[in-house]
Amino acid sequence: MTATVAGDTRVSVGSGTPVALRVRDLTVALGGRRVLDGVRLEATEGELVGLVGPNGAGKTTLLRAVLGLVPSSGRIGIAGQDVSQDRARTRRARATRSIGYVPQRHEFAWDFPVTVEEAVLTGRVARIGWLRGARAEDYRQVRRALDRVEMTHLRRRPVGELSGGQRQRVLVARALALDPRILLLDEPFTGLDVPTQEHLTTLFRELASEDRAVVMTNHDLVGAVHASDRLFLLNRTVVASGTPAELGGPEPWMRAFGVSAGSPLLAAIGRVAEGRSGNGSAGAVDDGRDGGERA
Ligand SMILES: Nc1ncnc2c1ncn2[C@@H]1O[C@H](COP(=O)(O)OP(=O)(O)OP(=O)(O)O)[C@@H](O)[C@H]1O
Which stretches does the entry tag as region Disordered (predicted)? Predict the structure, then answer.
């Protein structure tokens, strides 16, 4: 590992792949309680990173801290720029424009009387500003984003009339309207059926392969293990990280989720403790990926 966070130049890990997002020693206190403590995370361009942990582990808070929406201490590097909160606000504002944020679906006002196209256009407010009208370039980017998520045919439909899967696509398009280098997705699969989840997973993998870093929180551990290049197991701090193959044993999962060796959760993701599996396997899923680091 050769990278550093601070400075204006691109930083990279040993492989030479640019690090899009680097978080070090991130600590967040909310309501007088430390909800994140010394978090260390990174995502390189082209990588789909899974952020998993139990309810209340701090997954949403971590994404919000990266966006500067909650006060934090520690260091946050975005595309080589140190945007930690003690740095100039303008630098942070500029850098966070390279992040597309997809909040949980229930956080968007679906009752608001706007069309799909108008909802996606709101994703460009950071660039347009609230008081200036949208220009041709803004509409061009909106059309591009809608094409990307295959929602062009529904662009004039009121958002309140969309299905859950279509709404999720609108939120992704809204985040893509700024053509971000980093995409933060908060629980994009909640309430969606398996075919829709698989469709979206394919889209997220494609978006990552276009040299974006995609960081996704996910309660579906089976899906996270199969879709992610690298996983971060969070429970107030990063309990473990690595490729799914590197996290093949049950221990990090037991620690992160506070479950015992007999938990069905471990069986579901093929991380069964030695001696418990029917076929004698230690339970690692061979997903064919390699590389990564332990926290
Ligand atoms: N505004 C707030 N004030 C006080 N505590 C908060 C606030 N927001 C979140 N918390 C607390 O911070 C902790 C982490 O919450 P967070 O929503 O980040 O967890 P999460 O991992 O995303 O959970 P889930 O999987 O349930 O969505 C929780 O204990 C939560 O109660």
Answer: 276-295
Q: Tell how strand 33-44 and strand 48-52 pair up.
A: unpaired
- Give the position of tokens 């309990």: 239
Contacting residues for 12 by C-beta, under 8 A, at least 6 apart? 2, 3, 18, 19, 44
- Which residue in the block uniquely carries the two structure tokens 């597309």? 100
221 domain-assigned: no
CA of 268 to the centre of ligand 1 (A): 26
On whether residue 261 sits in a domain, the answer given is yes
ipTM for this prediction: 0.97
Going by alpha carbons, the residue nearest to atom 28 of ligand 1 is 56
Q: State the Cα–Cα distance between residues 222 and 165, nearest whole angstrom.
A: 19
**pLDDT tens digits, one per residue of 73-113:** 999 998 888 887 655 566 666 666 789 999 999 999 999 99
For the Cβ of 30 lying below 6 angstroms from any atom of ligand 1, the answer is: yes
User: What predicted TM-score, i.e. pTM, was given to this entire model?
Assistant: 0.86
Q: Ligand 1 atom 10: the closest Cα is on which residue?
A: 30
- Is there a domain that residue 112 lies in? no
* Total domains, the chain: 1
Query: Best substitution site from 34, 39, 59 to test ligand 1's pocket, by max atoms within 8 Å of Cβ?
Result: 59
Confirm whether 153 is domain-assigned.
Answer: no
Which mutation among 61, 63, 217, 235 tests ligand 1's pocket best, with the greatest number of atoms within 8 A of CB?
61
Confidence of residue 13 (pLDDT cuts 50, 70, 90): very low
What's the pLDDT tens digit per position in 103-147? 999 999 999 999 999 999 999 876 666 556 778 889 999 999 999
Ligand 1 atom closest to the Cα of residue 62 is: 18
